[in-house]
UniProtKB/TrEMBL annotation, chains A, B:
Gene3D superfamilies: 3.30.60.80, 3.40.1360.10, 6.10.250.240, RecR Domain 1 (1.10.8.420). PANTHER family: RECOMBINATION PROTEIN RECR. Residues 81-176 form the Toprim domain. The lineage of its organism: Bacteria, Pseudomonadati, Bacteroidota, Flavobacteriia, Flavobacteriales. A zinc finger (C4-type) spans 58-73. Keywords: DNA damage, DNA recombination, DNA repair, Metal-binding, Zinc, Zinc-finger. This is Recombination protein RecR.
């Protein structure tokens, strides 16, 4: 792509560094900003600079927070004895949206992935083990994605917990509510049969 | 979506104001920025702020340019007597990429669209007529998209040119090179038959 302006080229280049944004989309976005009032652009650039420089992570669960301890961890009504281990803060938001979980979270910040050069030391695992040792955590729920990396991470943490008095569980995998069996993949359908639940439980849940 | 941080919420909101970027994508982009070194975020926000505040439009053709007159208009090797009228600077880039046009451009900045509240006064039409009157423009090529708005704009400009000594043309519409006739839409195929060109021309072009 040939640009008639260095400023434009630079803005498009920086925009295209975002994931899923190619050169053409970046150009479209930048030209859109040019058509908007100048305040709009300033609001956007200020918002992201400010977030980046002032962002704070909860010192207990590593969720993004404006305060030292996040609202969830600071809430006395939540059950401190159950901790749900998730990959990133989007998972916290997704689980919070269900209103089905009243415990606390622990945000790992990723999964162990040798392919991408992410090892256990890059994740918030040490602080999780610390938390289990020091606080009264009775149950850890692993809610990582069920990929090879997710399973590896679960297993790594599981091994680190040896000798500690804590039970572990994973979230249930199965056919989505409302899905047709014939279109489900075999692995999921297989798991949902192996991990079948008493009928009374499914009545309670609905 | 419930956010655990006002800063995050604000950054996601501003990002989601861009066209084609929904709340979820905005969150993904912002979280990506958070994982990158702080310089990356600063480079992005500086690039767009700088572009917005220092951007310059060529005073002749209204293309984006770092100088008062853009490189194309300032190039003495280009044919000043032919002006190609386009909607926005992406069209200039697209035509430049073909290396088939040696004239100058005129960027309107949009199309006449009563539905979106865009009238002739919002576009660079007055300066186009001025240019035809003052400079030695012999031919105007309309290269707007062939929608109702594009046709309206073409016709509006055509009427404004009455009495001026300038010929007008539109770019050829027809079946794309390499396309199969059976899949072409009727209007395009119809036009490509009506506007057939001497066989010798097609030999020359290829």
């Amino acid at each position: 792509m040939e640009f008639s302006s260095k400023l434009l080229e630079n803005a498009v280049y920086e925009m295209s560094q975002l994931p899923g944004i190619g050169k053409r989309t970046a150009l479209r976005l930048v030209l859109h900003l040019l058509k908007q009032p100048e305040e709009r652009t300033n609001l956007l650039s200020e918002a992201i600079t400010k977030l980046r420089s002032e962002v704070n992570f909860c010192k207990s669960c590593h969720n993004i927070s404006d305060t030292e301890v996040c609202e969830i961890c600071a809430n006395p009504k939540r059950d401190e004895t159950i901790v749900c281990v998730v990959e990133d803060i989007r998972d916290v938001m997704a689980i919070e949206n269900t209103s089905q979980f009243n415990g606390l979270y622990h945000v790992l910040g990723g999964k162990i992935s040798p392919m991408e050069g992410v090892g256990p030391q890059d994740l918030n695992i040490v602080s999780l083990i610390q938390r289990v040792k020091e606080k009264e955590v009775k149950e850890l729920i692993f809610a990582l994605s069920s990929t090879m990396e997710g399973d590896t991470t679960n297993f790594y943490i599981y091994r680190q917990l040896e000798g500690l008095n804590v039970t572990t569980s994973t979230i249930a995998r199965g056919i989505s509510v409302g899905d047709e069996l014939e279109y489900a993949d075999e692995v999921t359908l297989g798991r949902s049969i192996l991990n079948r639940v008493p009928f009374e439980n499914s009545i309670k849940a609905s």
